[in-house]
Give the backbone structure.
Amino acid sequence: MPAQRSLPAAEEGSPDALLIRGTMTEIGPVADKVTSYFYALLFVRHPELRPMFPPAMDVQRDRLLKALLTAAEHFDNTPVLVDYLQNLGRGHRKYGTRAEHYPAVGECLIGALSRYASAVWNPETEAAWVRAYTTISQVMIDAAAVDELRAPAWWQAEVVTHDLRTPDVAVLTVRPDQPYPFLAGQYTSVETPWWPRVWRHYSFASAPRSDGLLTFHVKAVPAGWVSNALVHRARPGDVIRLGPPAGSMTVDHSTDSGLLCLGGGTGIAPIKALVEDVAEHGERRPVEVFYGARTDHDLYDIDTMLRLQQSHHWLSVRAVIDQQAHLQLPDAIRAYGPWNEYDAYLSGPPGMIRSGLHTLRDVGVPPSRIRHDSVEDLLVGVD
């Protein structure tokens, strides 16, 4: 599960931003129709782009459009927006996206918005969207061009081990075909040979290793094409593809602040990587891990976390099991602390992250010190 800072919505904004948000409010109730019309326009007007998308568009048809709309809605939040768009631009290289494709997408975006936001659409609104899309696309194009000079669009990676921890959770270790630079706490996108052009995000489950191997924790979810393929079909010797690393849920080694880590389900994977990262840097800052699960059966990696706790006196691991706990995860966080001097990290299902965010802010952790899964994944889900 991927990880970045969230995009806070501004209450005020530039004239363009206000017009854009007005459009977003208008199309909210008919978002599915906007999405369908956008892709219909794109494939009718530019049929050469159809092969870049999965054969079954229902799997991830709304991801491109939602990413663009998310960026436009937060148009005034320049520092975070640029980081978000640069990641998008680099990530879109794996689809074969080139600079000349962006005008076609922009043309069809404007066409879909003008049709379904007709009550608020006028020349000023259209001009605002054109300016916003021009800026958004240029940041993505520039990021892709820079990335092309230093990294491939994707990496081939051979499955080395496949460990089925539970009937629906597998731990996979893969060997990339060339060096893969990343930081503990980051994530990547994965494509399997069984579902071409369908990519899903997974966090790295360890800090960078000297042997160059990468590990992922994958839970098969209902109707999850990629997750079910990785859990139930992948075997040693199979080759998958990896996109570039992304995410900012990383450790700031210039400070000695404690780390408060909340991991739910397979969200424990990047938390484990963060613990290893702190250990490898020889630091002795306190690290408090709350490992949330619905049942003890879901604590598939608790033995690993407890071994790490035995090896590092500065690490504390607490399992919080929904069906057994007198305290739910938010209550458990409140029961310990104080946490206002800690850097907080959240990784897990979107619902857990939302409740965790509310709890952390409630107990006094400044929003600037909270890092969690990508806003993109909170919007569109993962599989």
Residues 123-148 form the longest helix (26 residues). Confidence is low (pLDDT under 50) at residues 1-11, 375-383. Residues 260 and 318 are 11 Å apart (CA to CA). The longest strand covers residues 155-166.
